[in-house]
Q: What sequence folds into this?
């Protein structure tokens, strides 16, 4: 029989390292088996080395089933010919339009066009735009739609949208600005912010009210009455036709002015030459008379 002193002096059982002990307060059948973990055997030099992981690209290109498929260098060079840098003048919408136009002509058997776009798009970026893509979380862009959404939201902030919306709403024909120049400038504003949210009715009404009285009367005359009483389709057609007519007339006037400038310049040169010949002839006659 053990005495109290013998029990107190008995050495406590040591739990082996790296083994999770049982919880003595819970029944054994309710506990998970002990987990044995292996100690890290790497040296300090190995632990202090820079990691070689974490270089996965943000864009995930889907599996391509076509055999022997690879991008040609000519396509990559085409992408680098007009790169997006994130400059103040750069418009991400214009870049996406240009990129879609180029890549829509690229066809490979058994290769989705979206996969080609995902592979080529990084080559169309440079400078700050490329650094933005490199900072995106690995494998966070799974589709072309994901890429476009992130790209537009990054480089077309809400403040830029607000400024362009205000320019569209407050558009005014400038002093001395022709009708077709005003129409082209207005369309440039709409194109620069395709997500402006204005209906076609609002766009046409804003442009009409921004014109000077002379151009408004011209549109009303072409519409056979009040332009705003016509359908939006008819109004747009009338505006486009008026813009084209003014363009053709202006080109004709410019060509006539240039032609008259050339003729007047030629006449001036001929007059100068005639005057010089007459002076020389007069001098020769006078000199002969003195003899």
A:
């Amino acid at each position: 029989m053990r005495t109290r002193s013998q029990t107190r002096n008995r050495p406590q059982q040591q739990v082996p390292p790296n083994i999770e002990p049982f919880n003595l307060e819970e029944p054994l059948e309710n506990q998970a088996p002990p987990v044995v973990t292996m100690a890290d055997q790497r040296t300090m030099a190995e632990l202090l080395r820079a990691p070689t992981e974490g270089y996965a690209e943000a864009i995930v290109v889907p599996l391509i089933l076509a055999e022997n498929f690879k991008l040609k260098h000519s396509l990559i060079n085409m992408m680098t010919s007009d790169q997006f840098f994130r400059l103040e003048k750069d418009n991400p919408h214009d870049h996406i339009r240009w990129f879609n136009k180029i890549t829509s002509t690229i066809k490979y058997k058994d290769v989705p066009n979206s996969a080609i776009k995902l592979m080529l798009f990084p080559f169309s970026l440079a400078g700050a735009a490329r650094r933005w893509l490199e900072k995106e979380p690995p494998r966070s862009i799974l589709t072309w739609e994901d890429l476009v959404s992130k790209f537009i939201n990054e480089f077309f902030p809400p403040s830029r949208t607000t400024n362009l919306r205000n320019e569209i709403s407050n558009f005014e024909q400038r002093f001395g600005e022709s009708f077709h120049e005003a129409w082209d400038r207005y369309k440039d504003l709409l194109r620069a912010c395709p997500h402006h949210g204005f209906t076609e009715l609002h766009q046409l009404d804003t442009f009409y009210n921004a014109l000077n009285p002379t151009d408004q009367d011209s549109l009303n005359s072409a519409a056979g009455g009040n332009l705003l009483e016509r359908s939006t389709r008819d109004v747009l057609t009338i505006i486009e036709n008026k813009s084209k007519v003014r363009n053709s007339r202006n080109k004709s006037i410019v060509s006539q002015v240039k032609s008259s400038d050339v003729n007047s310049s030629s006449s001036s040169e001929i007059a100068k030459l005639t005057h010089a010949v007459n002076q020389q002839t007069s001098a020769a006659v006078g000199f002969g008379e003195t003899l």
